[in-house]
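Figure 2 data, in text form.
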Amino acid sequence: MPSPKLLSLLEGFSRHGLNRFRKFLLSPLYNENRNLLALFDLVDTYLRDEGPKVKQLEKKVVWKKLFGQAPYKDAILRRLSSELLQLGYTFFYLEECRAAEAQEKLALMRHFRSPAQEKHFRGLARQARALQEQSFQHGSRQYLFAYQLEEALHQQLEESTGGMDNFSHLERADAELDRFYYLQKLKHYCDALGYQSFLSKRPEIALPPGFAARLEEPELLESPLLRSYYLVSRMLANPEDERHFFELKALFFRRQASFSPEDRQALYIHLKNYCIHKKINAGFSAFFAELFDLFKKGMQAGLLLKEGLLDPQDYKNIITVGLYVREFDWVEAFIQENTQRLPEAYQENALAYNLAKVFFHKKQYDKVIGQLREVEYKSLVYALGGKLMLLKTYFELGEFLALDSLIDSFRIYLRRKKEISREVRQQYLNVLRFVKRLSTVDTRDRDALAKIRREVESCTALAAKKWILEKIDEMG
């Protein structure tokens, strides 16, 4: 088989990419070795063939197709693989250059900046300026491009005149460089503060002396993007001052369409993480409502979709937070409208299971039982979650015969399933133990209920602990 690196590179090509790479290999400017094209064709056929692929790329099979009956030489085959791999890298680089039209204009402007080539330079400068004006989004790349364009215009002016009396391009270049530098520095600093929220170690990103004072001058913070990252830095460095969060949230959703896709995602994640790590995890449960609002606005703005798909973890989090803030109707509509945006393998179970969760929170317990019959318990997550929900439903309905039967079968399941970790197994076994006791306790016996409550409160390995405590309070 050709080198694994070559194969993995070509496996990453789309069919269109494979076709373009073959045209590239046909160009004598880049490749004059016909054996490289023949080797590519063998791999290309292998990748496109949907039938059996047992021996197509065995080394001696490949050698025979390339060199016939010539004696096999492994070094030659390895060299061909290496050369084709390097041409693959060159092809990727050229494709990137082809896509970066603005950078192409800048590179050509630098080439044609001599006075003799001024007509070419001016034409390219107009094209570059038009590309700049077409981009309504602001981000690091846009600031860098603006700096490079103004610098190129200044350098051409230097070469074409005897004496300099126009420094406007140099001044604008310096202003754009400031925007680029302060934005990038802020982004690194904000990332470091963000990592600190959930990791024991963070990158050592220090702000130089005078950074904040210079940043707060009007010409920098008048940029909505720079102001957004400035607010992130203040929000994460001083989480107790919630004003920065609310100002950032309002600014972000007012101007996010003008930010680059990368910055939209980064700023949105900073807002969510502040709610989760700095507020909710610190005991400020009021921020569940803010997190839910972020999820709703994020869905409306398409911020949670990647190529039209919704990440299963985001889907789960939206439902969990929505149910916590008791937005039951919204969550039910969300499930019905967005489950088809999950990867196909997740859809059927996700719809049935999560609708059951909504019905449980609405106390529509008969619907819960019917909905859970639609769930296939191939996934351990759905199996444990579904059985636990059914357990709670039987308890809520007072179906104690069904509850006893489920407790017995659930206990057997937990002990037989070897892939369940010891910690998780114990959490669920403790649920079964306490639910069994609650189903048989005399509700008039205050001392017995108080004893169970103390044991539940002291139990550190217990799933559904909040729900069990609620049931004890209702019985007391």
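Caption note: The first strand starts at residue 305 and ends at 306.
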